[in-house]
Design a protein that fits this description.
about 300 residues; alpha+beta; Rossmann fold; 10-stranded mixed sheet; 6-stranded antiparallel sheet; 18 strands
């Protein structure tokens, strides 16, 4: 696999948190640096022990004129990288090494060894959309309702490891699940809905591989919206079992829509790419817009949507 070509060397920065995954990320970081060295690349290392620190150093690197920002980890650090580079023209390279990896999964960046993922992060970029809000950019999805509480709980848990955390968090949060009333405006057309789940997606997956919006295309200038309506706990649990393969879209209480702009009004937490993204309050909505070509993602090869 060829690395990025060009007579002028790029200024490349690598954002990583060696303490992530209980310190196991340190070994991944050594392997990534070794692989970069085989390409003759001495990347500027941005070590960030916290979300706030990662956000600061990533934005700082972009402000200093870095050409390519590589991020090592899962959806959290990919989210921070996307926030930093969106709309700037700086190339983002994602070296997947986290738990959920939904962004990498949707864009063909999860396959192969860690070294092969590094190689892919050095390829020429593909322009992709992002979700733009007043609070910043999201790369995969913005979620409200039950999955937002599940995601928050999973992020607080240290056991079990891996994707099983999301399963356990779902079961623990299920007992307190209550559908919420939202006002949802799709390209200006308002709908009052009572829903357990609202997902506004740029890419297909969320929650560590659940195929929530199977037809989402991150290069079509549109946002895909999944609304799981007024369902009870058992019905919601059955729906989530079907989400693994995208079969939930045929459920009578699941509505799939598409729009270039989505405004969500209601109550409760909002999360973007699995990260905290604010709190919905009545008459203080979250406005989301498709931002065509806002991201330049190295080596991206989105799989064909199910309906494509």
């Amino acid at each position: 696999m060829a690395s990025v070509a060009g007579s002028e060397p790029e200024h490349i920065a690598l954002l990583a948190n060696p303490a992530a995954r209980a310190g196991r990320a340190a070994g991944d970081l050594d392997r990534v640096l070794d692989r970069l060295h085989t390409h003759g690349i001495d990347a500027e290392l941005l070590v960030a022990p916290s979300r706030a620190a990662a956000q600061e150093v990533a934005h700082g690197a972009v402000s200093r004129g870095v050409d390519r920002l590589l991020v090592l980890g899962g959806d959290g650090i990919a989210h921070l990288g996307a926030q930093a580079v969106a709309g700037t023209g700086v190339t983002l390279g994602v070296v997947a090494g986290g738990t959920g990896n939904d962004f990498a999964r949707a864009l063909g960046l999860l396959a192969g060894t860690l070294e092969e993922r590094v190689d892919r992060a050095l390829l020429e970029p593909t322009p992709l959309d992002a979700i733009e809000t007043d609070a910043g950019f999201a790369a995969t999805s913005v979620i409200a309702g039950f999955p937002a509480t599940v995601n928050a709980r999973a992020n607080r848990m240290s056991f079990p490891r891996g994707t099983a955390r999301y399963t356990v968090a779902t079961l623990l949060e299920l007992f307190g699940m209550r559908p919420t009333t939202y006002r949802l405006a799709l390209d200006g057309e308002a709908h009052d809905v009572r829903a357990a789940v609202v997902v506004v997606a740029n890419t297909r997956f969320f929650g560590a591989g659940m195929d929530i919006c199977p037809d989402a295309d991150p290069a079509d200038g549109l946002l895909d919206v999944c609304i799981v309506g007024d369902v009870g706990r058992l019905e919601l649990l059955r729906s989530f079992q079907k989400v693994q393969t995208g079969r939930h879209v045929g459920h009578p209480k699941v509505t799939m829509r598409r729009a270039s702009e989505v405004v969500l009004d209601g109550n409760g937490p909002v999360r973007a790419d699995g990260e905290p993204f604010g709190e919905l309050e009545p008459h203080r909505p979250c406005a989301m817009r498709a931002a065509p070509g806002a991201l330049r993602l190295a080596g991206a090869s989105p799989p064909s949507p199910v309906g494509g």
